[in-house]
Amino acid sequence: MPTTLADIRxxxxxxxxxxxxxxxxxxxxxGDAVRRIQQTIRVPIDEALTQVVTDEGFNxxxxxxxxxTELLSLRVNGIELEQRSITEINAQRALPxxxxxxxxxxxxxxxxxxxxxxxxxxELEYRSSIEPGSDDTTSIRLFDLKPELVEYGALRIAADDSxxxxxxxxxxxxxxxxxxxxxxxxxxxxxxxASMAPAYNMNGDWY
Length: 207
Description:
The chain is of the alpha+beta class. The chain is built from 6 helices and 8 strands, in the order H-H-E-E-E-E-E-H-E-E-E-H-H-H. It has helices at 5-16, 23-40, 86-92, 141-145, 147-162, 165-191, and strands at residues 47-53, 61-63, 68-76, 79-80, 82-83, 102-106, 109-113, 121-128. Strand 3 and strand 4 (79-80) form a beta hairpin. The N and C termini lie far apart (50 Å). It holds the Pfam family SU10_adaptor. InterPro entries: SU10_adaptor.
């Protein structure tokens, strides 16, 4: 079964040994912890992909998803676009039958140039911000992957609010440990099959 907001809240309350805390306050601590984690950690669990197939009359503009925190890749028909100035984009938007190559960001939208033909596939890969909300049955991937990280993140905020320096130090230590574990997992996944070589050979000589 997935780990839910209620499960995380119960973990926090057990550590605090106080079951009379307002539910809304504990939910706020958890929500704040999730936001802080997503702002600082880089793991695949917060990556998302949106696809758009263009139709006749497409104007080359796509809306930026409201939950996006960082663009990873913008592709048209499998070719990754490069960011350019709005001046360059406007100069190339009307080139006929040309493969889209560039994009720029303009007031909540991405502008693509040259404009993709009908039937083109636009792929937007990005990091997304997913908050747990207030529904007890809500489950996000971070809850299942590393519930301890969210738990101690919430406890850090609770200790900070209560100005309990000893508890804050203890919870921060636990939080940092779980944070590093999750980041290490992500780095191993990112680099395991990467096409890269170390700066030295097996004989210990630098290249």
